[in-house]
From TrEMBL:
Protein name according to UniProt: Flagellar secretion chaperone FliS
CDD domains from the UniProt entry: FliS (cd16098)
Taxonomic source organism: Comamonas endophytica
Main subcellular location of this protein, as a coarse class: cytoplasm
Hydrolase among keywords: no
Assigned keywords, A-Z: Bacterial flagellum biogenesis, Cell projection, Chaperone, Cilium, Cytoplasm, Flagellum
Record-linked InterPro entries: FliS, FliS_sf
Compartment(s): Cytoplasm, Cytosol
Similarity annotation: Belongs to the FliS family.
Length: 138
């Protein structure tokens, strides 16, 4: 009887928590959150393909593409970032293409390829943040 209200309250609580994390995050932490969300979404897409759940596959891949295009690619400053920024932009665009193909073919290997590529960049991003905090603290 109270489940719908409870579910709505839980959802609202989560949204407030996420908004609080975003509001207090540095630009570096925001990009890290995008990477974390992208990797989680890619795992969801892989699982949906393996289960044959087309609706969930489409939802997860769509979300992953949006994170890549609107979040990560949108944050790349090609003018100031030089070659590294251009290479990241090309990588993100490549990943969008691979996910589009994965969606059309129900191909879990393409999703895993993107997860591996993004995971490597995410790890590097995390290490940059750790080095930056060590430098700032010492």
């Amino acid at each position: 009887m109270f489940s719908p209200v409870s579910a709505r309250a839980t959802s609202a609580y989560r949204q407030v928590g996420v908004q609080s994390m975003v509001d207090g995050a540095s630009p570096h932490q925001l990009i890290k959150m995008l990477f974390d969300g992208l990797i989680s979404t890619l795992h969801g897409a892989r699982g949906a393909i393996e289960r044959g759940d087309i609706g969930e596959k489409v939802r997860h891949i769509g979300k992953a593409v949006r994170i890549l295009q609107e979040g990560l690619l949108g944050a790349v400053d090609r003018e100031r970032g030089g070659e590294v920024a251009n290479n990241l932009a090309m990588l993100y665009e490549y990943c969008v293409g691979r996910l589009t193909l994965a969606n059309a073919r129900n191909d879990v290997k393409l999703v895993e390829e993107v997860a591996d590529l993004v995971g490597t960049v995410s790890q590097g991003w995390t290490e940059m943040g750790l080095q930056g905090s060590a430098t700032a603290g010492g």
